[in-house]
Design a protein that fits this description.
Number of helices of chain B: 12
Strand content of chain A: under 5%
CATH superfamily of the largest domain in chain A: NADH-ubiquinone/plastoquinone oxidoreductase chain 6, subunit NuoJ
Shape of chain A: globular
Low-confidence stretches of chain B: none
CATH topology of the largest domain in chain A: Four Helix Bundle (Hemerythrin (Met), subunit A)
CATH architecture of the largest domain in chain A: Up-down Bundle
Distance between the termini of chain A: 65 Å
Largest interface: B-C, 73 and 59 residues
Mean pLDDT of chain B: 80
Radius of gyration of chain A: 20 Å
Oligomer: heterotrimer
Helix content of chain A: over 70%
CATH class of the largest domain in chain A: Mainly Alpha
Chains: A mainly alpha, B mainly alpha, C mainly alpha
Strand content of chain B: under 5%
Largest sheet of chain B: none
Number of strands of chain A: 0
Order of helices and strands of chain B: HHHHHHHHHHHH
Radius of gyration of chain B: 20 Å
Largest sheet of chain A: none
Distance between the termini of chain B: 60 Å
Structural class of chain B: mainly alpha
Number of domains of chain A: 2
Chain lengths: ~160, ~325, ~120
């Protein structure tokens, strides 16, 4: 049953990602990207990481896809204009993606994911929270610096002097 | 399988059937409450009991209307966006514990799951507004996007206060944790923020700019004919129900109450009180302008939410001894 | 028994009623009869009687774009804060130090945004 679900979610993720690249209308591409993220969220649920799965939905589909859609809708080609020529880019993308899939397959066979979760039945959120803060505290601080820089950069870039 | 308790719960109560009926009844209730505040009578003719079948009459009328898809519009998103909205609304109600054992999905991360599903709503409204290829729906969709994304962070943070106090993200356990006292008392600021931001998320007055009826003619819902109009309006009432139920669950003690009446009664009566409170807001406040709204959300409410986290931290951990 | 006090037969009747309505709505979407009066005005965008001119998706409200970016970042912040808040009683003050530094570092861009928002001519 788990294998079937895994295949289903993986197929959704890969299929929607291919659609996202190949779509002629950029809005369809962004929506397909959202479906691909849904497939990835399903994979997180299969890995017993429900917390990460729900936040994958909230952050990626709820925020990143919305940002992409907003940008495409306001800055992309208007109705009736020819969409960007994507033929050569998509060939390159296809080659890169097949390389990536091949490498992932080889790695998966080599390391062999453990048959059981490494925390077994004790995969609870309290453990996750404690280990996040105790073992990965430094990484957390670096991430906060990166995010702060991103926000300040975005705010500074969008500031326009209207000359008043 | 057809009579298994879970199936009955999904289909009947608190699942699909009850969501549909309660959604329709809330439409009637809103009209009645608004009418009484404005010293009118409201729906009167549709049944013997004060027009209670009004929404069902509207439903039958809408089912017979012609479905006009505007030219140059994107039919796929035009139809799919509000339909998906209905599915999301139903998914929200499924997470809430209505009584011990009456919960369709008792998942360990119930509270973030609810909020994550709500985070999907700006995407759908943006697509719905864009797909009609008409200026007013598009403006409405953009306004909805900015409004909902602005008020979601205070929503998350006010829910965080509850999680800090309860120590769990499971909605049933949060209700159980309130047996010594409802969280609305220590979390008064958090409850206030949650109420304000959920009204903004539902696009109700005073945050009803995306649907501004006197301004941009129903905003992103303007081009929706007949049955699709129902699909566009329906999620609004379902979200009202779902948010009020969640507010009751995390701040008002959910189904807890003196045991001479069943827990379901307490849950529903508390939820109804919150719903009527939110409906009264509609007739009381004027509409907020977009830049005022965004500034209020990102500055005032977010600051209050962070202060609330600080207060909750001190309540839970105690003052830091330096 | 579905819920206390609701007889099963009544619940099934309600279910049949709602499912009939749902079926009607779904079928209605698929079985659309041929338009008896196809006038071109029916399909035009609605603008309260004016004849719609210009494209339907012109560029509006771009200046609030930074709010969207801030939303993306603070949504991720909410994720980490939830992970922290869950275990607050067990972590105590000493375990919360990384998260408190995290919050303080991320309050700085928020303060910058507040500063910019107060200077309305820039936004």
């Amino acid at each position: 049953m788990t294998d079937l679900l895994f295949l289903a979610f993986a197929a959704v993720a890969i299929g929607a990602a291919i659609l996202a690249i190949e779509a002629r209308d950029l809005v369809y591409g962004a929506a397909a990207l959202g479906i691909a993220f849904l497939g990835v969220a399903g994979l997180f649920f299969l890995l017993d990481a429900a917390y990460v799965g729900w936040f994958q939905i909230a952050v990626y589909i709820g925020a990143v896809v919305v940002l992409i859609l907003f940008t495409v809708m306001l800055v992309g080609p208007k109705m009736g204009e020819t969409p960007l020529g994507l033929k050569r880019v998509s060939l390159l993308a296809a080659i890169l993606v097949s390389l990536l899939l091949g490498m992932t397959g080889a790695l998966a066979n080599a390391t062999a994911f453990p048959g059981q979760d490494s925390c077994g039945s004790g995969c609870d959120l309290a453990l996750f929270s404690t280990s996040l803060l105790k073992n990965y505290g430094v990484q957390l601080e670096f991430m906060s610096l990166v995010m702060a820089a991103a926000v300040i950069g975005a705010l500074a870039l969008s500031k326009t002097d209207r000359g008043q | 399988m057809l009579t298994s308790p879970l199936f009955l719960q999904i289909v009947l109560f608190p699942g699909l059937t009850s969501i549909a009926i309660i959604g329709a009844l809330l439409g009637w209730l809103e009209r009645k409450v608004t009418a009484r505040v404005q010293l009118r009578i409201g729906p009167l003719y549709a049944s013997p009991a004060g027009g209670i079948l009004q929404m069902f009459a509207d439903l039958i009328k809408l089912a017979f209307k012609e479905l006009i898809v505007p030219e140059n519009s994107d039919a796929f998103f035009f139809i799919m966006a509000p339909t998906t909205g209905l599915v999301l609304g139903a998914a929200l109600v499924g997470l809430i514990p209505f009584a011990p054992g009456l919960q369709i999905a008792n998942i360990e991360v119930g509270l973030p799951a609810f909020l994550a599903i709500i985070t999907l709503s700006p995407t759908l409204i943006l697509l719905a507004g864009w797909s009609a290829n008409s200026k007013f729906p598009f403006i409405g969709g953009l306004r909805a996007l900015f409004q909902q994304t602005a008020y979601e962070i205070p929503l998350w943070l006010s829910a965080l206060g509850v999680i800090m106090m309860a120590g769990t993200m499971n909605l049933a356990q949060i209700v159980a944790a309130q047996s010594t006292g409802w969280f609305i008392i220590p979390q008064a600021l958090g409850a206030f923020i949650f109420l304000v931001t959920s009204v903004a998320e539902m696009e109700r007055l005073p945050f009803d700019l995306p649907e501004a009826e006197s301004e941009i003619m129903m905003g992103w819902q303007a081009e929706y004919p007949g049955v699709l109009f129902l699909a566009a309006q329906g999620p609004g009432f379902v979200k009202l129900y779902a948010f009020s139920a969640l507010f009751t669950t995390i701040f008002l003690g959910g189904f807890l109450g003196p045991s001479f009446l069943p827990p379901l009664f307490w849950m529903l009566s508390k939820t109804l009180t919150v719903i009527v409170l939110i409906m009264l807001l509609r007739s009381t406040f004027p509409r907020v302008r977009l830049d005022q709204l965004l500034r209020a959300g990102w500055t005032t409410l977010l600051t209050l939410a962070i202060i609330n986290i600080g207060i909750t931290y001190i309540l839970v951990v105690g003052l830091p001894t330096l | 028994m579905v819920a206390q006090g609701i007889p099963e037969i009544g619940a099934y009747i309600a279910f049949l009623f709602v499912s009939t309505v749902a079926l009607v709505i779904v079928l209605r979407l698929f079985i659309t009869p041929k338009d008896p009066r196809p006038t071109p005005e029916k399909k035009k965008p609605f603008e309260s009687g004016q004849i719609a001119a210009g494209p339907g998706r012109t560029r509006f409200i771009i200046q609030y774009y930074p709010y969207l970016l801030m939303f993306v970042v603070y949504d991720v912040v909410a994720m980490f804060l939830f992970a922290w808040g869950l275990n607050l009683r067990a972590l105590g003050a000493s375990g919360s130090v990384p998260v408190l530094v995290f919050i303080v570092v991320l309050l700085i861009p928020l303060g910058y945004a507040l500063h910019l928002a107060n200077h309305r001519e820039n936004w």
